[in-house]
Amino acid sequence: MDLPLSPILLFAGCGLGALGVALSMPRKSISPYIFGAILAGLAFGLVMLGLGLKNPESVPNIHFYIFSLIALASALRVITHPRPVYAALYFVMTILASSGLYLILSAEFMTFALIIVYAGAILITYLFVIMLATEAPSEVQSENLTEYDRVSREPIAATVAGFILLGGLTTLFAVGLPNLKPDDKLAAGDRQLAFMSKKVEPVLKQAGLLKDGEKVVASRVETTAYGSPKDGDTSLDAIKIKSADGKERLLPRAEWPANLKLSNTEGVAFSLINNHPGAIEIAGVILLMAMLGAVVLARKKVEMDEAALSAAIARQRAGGRGDDELGVDGPFARPGTGEGGVA
Amino acid sequence: MNSLSHMLPMLTSLDLSSTLAQGPLPAAMSTITLYHYLFTSAALFCIGLIGFLTRRNLIIMFLCTEMMFQAAGIALIAFSRFHLNHTGETFVIFILTVAAAEAALALALVVLLFRRKESLDASVWTELKG
After folding, report:
1. Could you tell me the maximum CA-CA distance found in chain B, to the nearest angstrom?
2. In chain A, positions 243-262, which contact chain B (CB-CB < 8 Å)?
3. A interface mutation test: which of B13, B30, B32 has the most A CBs within 10 A?
4. Chain B nearest C-alpha distance from A328 (Å)
5. Opening angle at CA A274, ends B104 and A267, nearest 5
């Protein structure tokens, strides 16, 4: 069987990575996370070097190595950093690095959508909630860190499970990928240009392919679900031009000017609107339901649990925090009357 | 190490235009190159999974699910480039949608749970099981 990488190397990489991740988990004693991170990075480097040496003709661009190393290293830091705020900031780093990966895969629109929506909006929401929902520090806890942030739960078992999954997934990819062929029928190409008369017209005029009084007519592009024309239908590879006296002629694909190209954003837009219009509706419903749910949850009156309440009162008596923090407006005001929760 | 010297000119080419898709049909991507991206995506997914299992802070657990979404996004974009088809990119838009909806709902829930127990520890809610 022709595998892109020897399985021994793959499993060795997975084992080394598991060791590194398990070492860098937060624990009660000093955790050797720098050592663990170096081990995990070595494991990634080992697998990538093995892949590159076995198939030197198809190594990706060097930017791939830079971005994926940044993404994986900061992802490791997200799950090992004891402070939630820092973990969220490292996650922003992961997002930026994976948007770099999107860029080298020539998905420019999604790159910037990812930065704006993910790093800009979703992560800020996370940071807000981290700052809202932070436990009042007491003197027992060191450096403001709570016990559940400093100690991880079952690090060894979780790491073993995760890396067995990684080994299985990558082995299956390695076995299955050689059978995968890029399908020419799936390729979107730039046939949709025949539909975009306003974009095409100035380019044709500039190239001198459009005579006086002639106009480009948008022709309906009949596509399959994958965005390509139906089998054997080559008539779509032509731009329809209408002259002033109503005569129509076709400009075949071979005569199109070289600078007439479909941009990535236009391609995504055609795929979204032409091929997946129902999915947009579903996405809208999901967002609406999430908004309704969040509003309902946020308006709910919550009473504090009895154990948590007595702990908070004990903390207040011990003087862990100033009195202004637990004043009348605080969440523990007037226990038992039911008006303690924030409405 | 003969193959390494063969690899070097490709590695040192800092010109992005060789990888960016150009023209009506850009150069095809080999399955091995696709495998590189899929490996990164799988590794990111597994790190997110390990984080979800080990961390006890509710907010970090949801951050790890976002990381798994991100891994799926990288795989989708890589397949989209491999097939020279925009459907994969379109589905990343829906990943973003689901991630945003999940963030809104999950964080509202986390704030609710925090108000009740004054703690973000997932294990204080163990009494909920069965």
Report:
1. 64
2. 253, 261-262
3. B32
4. 16
5. 80
CATH of domain B30-118: 1.10.287.3510
Complete domains list, chain A, with CATH: 7-179 (1.20.120.1200), 191-260 (no CATH)
R_g over Cα of chain B: 20
In sequence order, the β-bridge partners of residue A252 are: A238
Which two three-digit tokens encode residue A343? 């409405």
Which residue numbers in chain A have pLDDT < 50?
225-227, 321-343
Q: Where are the domains of chain B?
A: 30-118
Tens of pLDDT, residues A251-296: 777 777 777 778 888 888 888 888 888 989 999 999 999 999 998 9
Residue range B4-38, pLDDT digits in tens: 555 554 444 444 444 444 444 567 788 888 999 99
Predicted structure pTM score: 0.82
Q: What is the 3-state secondary structure (H, E, C) of chain B?
A: CHHHHHHHHHHHCCCHHHCCCCCCCCCCCCHHHHHHHHHHHHHHHHHHHHHHHHCCEHHHHHHHHHHHHHHHHHHHHHHHHHCCCCHHHHHHHHHHHHHHHHHHHHHHHHHHHHHHHCCCEHHHHHHHCC
Nearest in space to A126 (alpha carbons), one of B104, B95, B54: B104
Chain centre to alpha carbon of residue A46: 25
